[in-house]
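FAQ: What does a multi-protein file look like?

Like this. Sequence, then tokens, then the next protein.
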Amino acid sequence: MKKIIKTSNAPAPIGPYNQAVLSGNMLFVSGQIAINPKTGNLEIDDLAAETKLVMENLKAILSEAGLTFDDVIKTSIFISDMNNFAKINEVYGTYFNAETAPARETVEVANLPKFVNVEISAIAVKN
């Protein structure tokens, strides 16, 4: 049985999907972009700030499900320019303990929703 996870502390979906779905003890968090949940505005002028907002949106969804970044087992990072990898990775890394960080892939793509620079999704396990 699946449970839909919704929070006003992260942006509302911009399509036919949910912020996250809990199935058993697995949480599947949809890709997050730098939409400020309070204003609904994109914040993409500064790559570090953009990445931080993406991570804070993920954090809000995890929190709504009673989880933290410690529970994340897999992330997927989609970036529009691989030259931005180091800056994105620097911010991303502050949210995880290097020794227990999740599995991950980082993929450069031609375009992302609303032409943002980075989108990140996550899978977590509720113990």
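And here is the next protein:
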Amino acid sequence: MKKKKQQMLGNLEIAAFCDQLSMIVSAGIPIYEGISILQEDAPEEETAEILSVISNSLDHGSSFCDALRETNVFPKYVLDMIGIGELAGKLEEVLNALTGYYKREESIQNSIKNAVTYPLLMIAMMLAVILVLIAKVLPVFHQIYMELGSDLTGFAGAMMRFSDALNQYLFVIVIVLIAAAAGIFLISKSDAGQKFFKKRPLALSTAASRFANCMALALSSGLDTDQGLMLAEQLVDNPYMASRIKKCRDLTASGRGFAEAVLTSGIFSKIYTSMITIAFRTGSMDEVMHQISEEYEEETDRQIAGFISVLEPTLVIILSIFIGLILISFLLPLIGIMSSIG
């Protein structure tokens, strides 16, 4: 584990911590001894400091949950679940579930980053190639035409005038592009931008995966469906999915069965109807929720892969057409001039 001052641990750091503790608990070693073992083997000073705070708190009689709270580096969800695990006597199960949960959260976040970063890099590279071609390559052709006593007309002439303007106002254009990029970034972080993006199918699929993952963890830790829904509503960072979870809670409060409420509220697609109904009757809801979470995660990956598979050739085609038009418009007249000279 590695942390900065007062900064929450990352998903993989939490997963590694819970994984190590679950092995300690399963071996029958008391928590305070396990923390001491981890402290001795801590690879970094920051990690040792966190474990030292936990150890000192345990020595003063605090519960494990309260000891973790003293560090100020664990999210509320981890603290709540470990507190429940301690009270229910299922700490090992909770730690194992948290390990899987935060590993999947890291996988989901990486998928989202890839979905945003890769297209932006491709677009930036395409624009850079076009700008270099217009600003630096076209003037070379223009100089050749001038030496041959000819001038550019039509599309080539228009591109040359654009090249002159680009070179003349390059600094202003760069400032405008930076300002536009900053504006797009700020809009994406605003409430309106977040609402727009979180209503997209990819965001809803990600939120459904997180909901199923949270429910699987809650149910496997001994919580009932109402408690699981309450935790999931707080954890799912999507207002549209949160409203569906609230509707599900209202339906269960009015007497509807959990399976019917989940499906009626639209949290999952209808293909999972039979799975949830059978799971609710057989008492294997936690296992089915875990399976649904993995299937939604795979669906998210497929959507991202499909988006990139379409975007990449599209950008390449656009770039190729643009470069081809420029080269043809400049080279054909040049070939004609050279032929007449020959």
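Q: Is there any per-entry metadata?
A: Some entries carry free-text notes. For the entry above: The mean pLDDT is 78.
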